[in-house]
DNA sequence: CCGATAACTCTACACATGTAGCGATAATCG
DNA sequence: CGATTATCGCTACATGTGTAGAGTTATCGG
Protein backbone atom coordinates (compact mmCIF):
# COMPACT_ATOMS: atom_id res chain seq x y z
CA UNK A 1 0.00 0.00 0.00
CA UNK A 2 1.20 3.52 -0.77
CA UNK A 3 1.70 5.60 2.29
CA UNK A 4 2.00 9.32 2.72
CA UNK A 5 4.37 10.31 5.45
CA UNK A 6 4.46 13.85 6.69
CA UNK A 7 7.71 15.62 5.93
CA UNK A 8 10.47 14.80 8.36
CA UNK A 9 12.44 17.62 10.02
CA UNK A 10 15.30 16.83 7.65
CA UNK A 11 13.10 17.24 4.61
CA UNK A 12 11.70 20.44 6.03
CA UNK A 13 15.19 21.84 6.53
CA UNK A 14 16.10 21.06 2.94
CA UNK A 15 12.92 22.62 1.58
CA UNK A 16 13.36 25.74 3.61
CA UNK A 17 16.91 26.12 2.42
CA UNK A 18 15.69 25.88 -1.15
CA UNK A 19 12.74 28.18 -0.47
CA UNK A 20 15.01 30.93 0.81
CA UNK A 21 15.87 31.81 -2.79
CA UNK A 22 13.52 29.80 -4.96
CA UNK A 23 14.94 30.80 -8.33
CA UNK A 24 18.48 29.77 -7.46
CA UNK A 25 19.82 26.37 -8.42
CA UNK A 26 21.48 24.58 -5.54
CA UNK A 27 23.62 21.45 -5.46
CA UNK A 28 23.98 18.71 -2.94
CA UNK A 29 27.35 19.40 -1.40
CA UNK A 30 26.41 22.99 -0.83
CA UNK A 31 23.00 22.21 0.65
CA UNK A 32 24.46 19.47 2.79
CA UNK A 33 26.76 21.97 4.48
CA UNK A 34 23.98 24.49 5.03
CA UNK A 35 21.47 22.04 6.35
CA UNK A 36 24.00 19.80 8.07
CA UNK A 37 23.16 16.51 6.40
CA UNK A 38 25.63 13.95 5.12
CA UNK A 39 25.49 12.81 1.53
CA UNK A 40 23.89 9.52 2.45
CA UNK A 41 20.91 11.29 4.00
CA UNK A 42 20.69 14.24 1.68
CA UNK A 43 20.89 12.70 -1.77
CA UNK A 44 18.09 10.21 -1.24
CA UNK A 45 15.94 13.06 0.08
CA UNK A 46 16.65 15.18 -2.98
CA UNK A 47 15.90 12.28 -5.29
CA UNK A 48 12.62 11.54 -3.55
CA UNK A 49 11.52 15.15 -3.63
CA UNK A 50 12.36 15.28 -7.32
CA UNK A 51 10.41 12.08 -7.92
CA UNK A 52 7.38 13.65 -6.30
CA UNK A 53 7.68 16.68 -8.54
CA UNK A 54 8.57 19.06 -5.74
CA UNK A 55 12.03 19.69 -7.17
CA UNK A 56 13.38 20.00 -10.67
CA UNK A 57 16.92 18.96 -11.48
CA UNK A 58 19.71 19.66 -13.99
CA UNK A 59 23.41 19.05 -14.40
CA UNK A 60 26.10 21.67 -14.38
CA UNK A 61 29.10 20.37 -16.38
CA UNK A 62 31.83 21.10 -13.85
CA UNK A 63 35.50 21.86 -14.53
CA UNK A 64 37.94 19.07 -15.48
CA UNK A 65 39.02 17.17 -12.40
CA UNK A 66 35.91 17.97 -10.43
CA UNK A 67 32.62 16.13 -10.75
CA UNK A 68 29.65 17.71 -12.47
CA UNK A 69 27.13 19.17 -10.09
CA UNK A 70 23.57 17.97 -9.84
CA UNK A 71 21.44 21.08 -9.46
CA UNK A 72 18.05 21.30 -7.76
CA UNK A 73 15.35 23.94 -7.42
CA UNK A 74 11.81 24.00 -6.04
CA UNK A 75 8.96 23.63 -8.51
CA UNK A 76 5.69 25.52 -8.08
CA UNK A 77 4.32 22.48 -6.29
CA UNK A 78 7.36 22.52 -4.05
CA UNK A 79 6.88 26.15 -3.13
CA UNK A 80 3.23 25.46 -2.42
CA UNK A 81 4.17 22.77 -0.06
CA UNK A 82 6.59 24.98 1.83
CA UNK A 83 3.77 27.49 2.25
CA UNK A 84 1.49 24.70 3.44
CA UNK A 85 4.09 23.68 5.99
CA UNK A 86 4.28 27.22 7.31
CA UNK A 87 0.51 27.39 7.63
CA UNK A 88 0.42 24.16 9.57
CA UNK A 89 3.12 25.44 11.87
CA UNK A 90 0.89 28.37 12.78
CA UNK A 91 -2.12 26.10 13.11
CA UNK A 92 -0.25 23.79 15.41
CA UNK A 93 -1.59 25.54 18.51
CA UNK A 94 -5.31 24.48 18.57
CA UNK A 95 -5.92 20.97 19.81
CA UNK A 96 -7.32 19.70 16.53
CA UNK A 97 -6.15 16.11 17.16
CA UNK A 98 -3.41 15.27 14.79
CA UNK A 99 -4.05 16.31 11.27
CA UNK A 100 -1.26 15.54 8.81
CA UNK A 101 -0.14 16.37 5.32
CA UNK A 102 -2.98 15.82 2.88
CA UNK A 103 -2.19 14.96 -0.75
CA UNK A 104 -3.11 17.85 -3.11
CA UNK B 1 70.28 24.72 -7.69
CA UNK B 2 68.59 22.01 -9.74
CA UNK B 3 69.15 18.54 -8.39
CA UNK B 4 68.71 15.17 -9.96
CA UNK B 5 67.39 12.58 -7.60
CA UNK B 6 67.31 8.94 -8.57
CA UNK B 7 63.80 7.53 -8.85
CA UNK B 8 62.26 6.57 -5.54
CA UNK B 9 60.76 3.11 -5.08
CA UNK B 10 57.30 4.71 -5.36
CA UNK B 11 58.16 6.28 -8.67
CA UNK B 12 59.61 3.00 -9.88
CA UNK B 13 56.42 1.17 -8.96
CA UNK B 14 54.33 3.66 -10.87
CA UNK B 15 56.55 3.50 -13.93
CA UNK B 16 56.54 -0.27 -13.95
CA UNK B 17 52.77 -0.35 -13.71
CA UNK B 18 52.59 1.94 -16.71
CA UNK B 19 55.27 0.00 -18.56
CA UNK B 20 53.31 -3.24 -18.26
CA UNK B 21 51.08 -2.10 -21.11
CA UNK B 22 52.66 1.02 -22.52
CA UNK B 23 49.97 1.87 -25.04
CA UNK B 24 47.17 1.85 -22.49
CA UNK B 25 45.99 5.05 -20.86
CA UNK B 26 45.77 4.76 -17.09
CA UNK B 27 44.21 7.05 -14.51
CA UNK B 28 45.18 7.90 -10.99
CA UNK B 29 42.61 6.09 -8.91
CA UNK B 30 43.23 2.92 -10.82
CA UNK B 31 47.00 3.16 -10.59
CA UNK B 32 46.79 4.09 -6.94
CA UNK B 33 45.03 0.82 -6.17
CA UNK B 34 47.48 -1.23 -8.18
CA UNK B 35 50.57 0.37 -6.80
CA UNK B 36 49.16 1.03 -3.34
CA UNK B 37 49.67 4.75 -3.13
CA UNK B 38 47.17 7.25 -1.79
CA UNK B 39 46.12 10.18 -3.92
CA UNK B 40 48.32 12.60 -2.03
CA UNK B 41 51.44 10.66 -2.93
CA UNK B 42 50.44 9.50 -6.36
CA UNK B 43 49.17 12.65 -8.03
CA UNK B 44 52.24 14.73 -7.32
CA UNK B 45 54.37 11.90 -8.70
CA UNK B 46 52.32 11.73 -11.88
CA UNK B 47 52.48 15.48 -12.33
CA UNK B 48 56.25 15.51 -11.83
CA UNK B 49 56.80 12.69 -14.28
CA UNK B 50 54.61 14.49 -16.80
CA UNK B 51 56.57 17.72 -16.26
CA UNK B 52 59.77 15.86 -17.08
CA UNK B 53 58.26 14.53 -20.25
CA UNK B 54 58.25 10.93 -19.12
CA UNK B 55 54.45 10.80 -19.22
CA UNK B 56 51.86 12.30 -21.52
CA UNK B 57 48.43 13.20 -20.21
CA UNK B 58 44.84 13.69 -21.43
CA UNK B 59 41.38 14.04 -20.00
CA UNK B 60 38.57 11.57 -20.38
CA UNK B 61 35.22 13.42 -20.03
CA UNK B 62 33.64 11.21 -17.40
CA UNK B 63 29.94 10.58 -16.74
CA UNK B 64 27.80 13.20 -14.97
CA UNK B 65 28.34 13.11 -11.23
CA UNK B 66 31.80 11.67 -11.48
CA UNK B 67 34.92 13.70 -12.13
CA UNK B 68 36.65 13.57 -15.49
CA UNK B 69 39.60 11.23 -15.43
CA UNK B 70 43.10 12.45 -15.95
CA UNK B 71 44.80 9.85 -18.13
CA UNK B 72 48.50 9.11 -18.27
CA UNK B 73 50.77 7.04 -20.47
CA UNK B 74 54.55 6.63 -20.81
CA UNK B 75 56.28 8.61 -23.54
CA UNK B 76 59.20 7.18 -25.50
CA UNK B 77 61.50 8.88 -23.02
CA UNK B 78 59.55 7.27 -20.22
CA UNK B 79 59.89 3.81 -21.68
CA UNK B 80 63.60 4.41 -22.16
CA UNK B 81 63.94 5.24 -18.57
CA UNK B 82 62.16 2.11 -17.43
CA UNK B 83 64.58 0.10 -19.56
CA UNK B 84 67.46 2.03 -18.01
CA UNK B 85 66.16 1.19 -14.59
CA UNK B 86 66.04 -2.50 -15.44
CA UNK B 87 69.61 -2.35 -16.72
CA UNK B 88 70.81 -0.74 -13.54
CA UNK B 89 69.04 -3.38 -11.51
CA UNK B 90 71.10 -6.03 -13.27
CA UNK B 91 74.24 -3.96 -12.94
CA UNK B 92 73.68 -3.48 -9.24
CA UNK B 93 75.83 -6.49 -8.38
CA UNK B 94 79.36 -5.20 -9.24
CA UNK B 95 80.85 -2.84 -6.66
CA UNK B 96 80.99 0.17 -9.00
CA UNK B 97 80.63 2.68 -6.12
CA UNK B 98 77.30 4.36 -6.38
CA UNK B 99 76.44 5.45 -9.84
CA UNK B 100 73.06 7.13 -10.20
CA UNK B 101 70.55 8.19 -12.81
CA UNK B 102 72.26 10.28 -15.45
CA UNK B 103 70.23 12.92 -17.31
CA UNK B 104 69.69 11.94 -20.98
C1' DC C 1 82.74 14.21 4.60
C1' DC C 2 79.28 17.59 5.92
C1' DG C 3 75.90 20.92 5.98
C1' DA C 4 72.37 23.51 3.30
C1' DT C 5 68.36 22.84 0.97
C1' DA C 6 65.88 21.12 -3.20
C1' DA C 7 63.10 17.48 -3.90
C1' DC C 8 60.36 14.36 -2.31
C1' DT C 9 56.57 11.45 0.39
C1' DC C 10 52.77 11.29 3.36
C1' DT C 11 48.69 12.58 6.20
C1' DA C 12 44.77 15.36 6.09
C1' DC C 13 41.52 17.60 3.95
C1' DA C 14 38.28 19.57 0.27
C1' DC C 15 35.25 18.86 -3.45
C1' DA C 16 31.25 16.18 -5.34
C1' DT C 17 28.18 12.40 -6.27
C1' DG C 18 25.98 8.32 -5.19
C1' DT C 19 24.61 3.20 -3.36
C1' DA C 20 23.96 -0.74 0.06
C1' DG C 21 22.16 -2.19 3.92
C1' DC C 22 20.44 -1.77 8.69
C1' DG C 23 17.66 -0.17 12.08
C1' DA C 24 14.01 3.31 13.30
C1' DT C 25 9.52 5.40 12.57
C1' DA C 26 5.04 6.00 11.48
C1' DA C 27 0.62 5.29 8.41
C1' DT C 28 -2.91 2.29 7.66
C1' DC C 29 -6.02 -1.56 8.47
C1' DG C 30 -8.24 -4.99 11.15
C1' DC D 1 -5.15 -0.19 20.03
C1' DG D 2 -1.83 -2.89 18.05
C1' DA D 3 0.60 -5.28 14.36
C1' DT D 4 2.27 -5.00 9.83
C1' DT D 5 5.27 -3.02 6.68
C1' DA D 6 6.25 0.94 3.53
C1' DT D 7 9.15 4.56 4.00
C1' DC D 8 12.70 6.82 5.80
C1' DG D 9 17.47 8.36 7.93
C1' DC D 10 22.02 7.18 8.85
C1' DT D 11 26.63 4.95 8.71
C1' DA D 12 29.91 3.21 5.76
C1' DC D 13 31.80 2.77 1.57
C1' DA D 14 33.07 3.65 -3.42
C1' DT D 15 34.56 6.67 -7.18
C1' DG D 16 37.72 10.27 -8.62
C1' DT D 17 40.83 14.45 -8.58
C1' DG D 18 43.64 17.47 -6.35
C1' DT D 19 46.12 20.88 -2.68
C1' DA D 20 48.40 22.37 1.84
C1' DG D 21 51.60 21.67 4.91
C1' DA D 22 54.70 18.91 7.77
C1' DG D 23 58.35 16.23 7.91
C1' DT D 24 62.04 13.28 5.54
C1' DT D 25 65.74 12.19 2.32
C1' DA D 26 69.51 12.62 -0.45
C1' DT D 27 72.30 15.66 -3.82
C1' DC D 28 75.70 18.90 -4.54
C1' DG D 29 79.02 22.43 -3.48
C1' DG D 30 82.61 23.35 -0.54
Automatic annotation (TrEMBL), chains A, B:
A Pfam family per the record: PadR
Entry-linked InterPro entries: Tscrpt_reg_PadR_N, WH-like_DNA-bd_sf, WH_DNA-bd_sf
Domain Transcription regulator PadR N-terminal: 33-82
Name of protein: PadR family transcriptional regulator
Annotated organism of origin: Paractinoplanes globisporus
Taxonomic lineage: Bacteria, Bacillati, Actinomycetota, Actinomycetes, Micromonosporales
Amino acid sequence: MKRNRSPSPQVVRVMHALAAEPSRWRYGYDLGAEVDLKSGSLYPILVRLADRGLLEATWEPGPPGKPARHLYRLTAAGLDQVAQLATEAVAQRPPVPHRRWKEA
